[in-house]
Please model this.
Amino acid sequence: MKKVSIIGLGWLGHAAGVLLQQQGYQVLGSATSLEKVAQLQQKGLDAVQFKLNPRPEGIGYLRLFDSEILIVTLPPRSRHGDGELYLQQLAVIRELLVASAVEQVIFISSTGIYPNESKAVSYTEEEEVSESNAGNSILYRAEQLMADSPSYALTILRMGGLMGADRIPGAYFSGKEQVVGHTRVNFIHQLDAARMIAWVVDQGLWNQTFNGVAPEHPFRREVYAKNASACGIPLPASYQEAADEKVGRCISSEKFSATGFSFDFPNPLDFTYTPRLGTS
Model:
């Protein structure tokens, strides 16, 4: 039974941990507080306390690095200010990795790394990205930092907008004025994102970079309208006017599909949700 550790049993990490455990892997994850650790253990996931401020704090966190595979899924809110804290946290993780038994690493990045420019064709993993043209230079520096080590095999998953469960895209813009509705979305459902992580582990897809987005890219206003109808939330109050329909900044997931992976939710118009109480 392979051991898999997950740094960050949050919204995505928890879903991936549950799935990997169901598939027979021995899973250990981390949370930043002892209260969260206890809650996770009550739900059947082994966890330890691990915080990065940016130096490591917690109880028993070195167990995370006593596994064959490590998944790093630090949440975006870790990128405070100019992002330097996030990079410092990753540097500490890499430092611990170099001295550990970990052989393979999955690093959860974001499609936000691609340039903020619309073009006629989709962005693929072959796109040349640099610190100067990256849509988010911190993401570029983070990927470079994690890749700068010969001690482990690294696979990077650049996730699109993580939706599904209690994350309803239309809810973020409900009732708002001048909402952008004429560009296309690059979303992925929580369950498909978790399945992608498990697929990399199961198939041994190491030393590669993949985009994690649903294959279909409807217009934003279409998604918001579907959310309003299905979840009972108000539509945006108004949309920005557009001279013409734009293809927008579309991200391709064809490379990952070519590995044999099939999305359960290929179209964001068909995403399922479990709204929090009071959302609908």
In short: The beta strands are 3-7, 26-31, 46-52, 56-59, 69-72, 104-110, 153-159, 161-163, 187-189, 209-212.
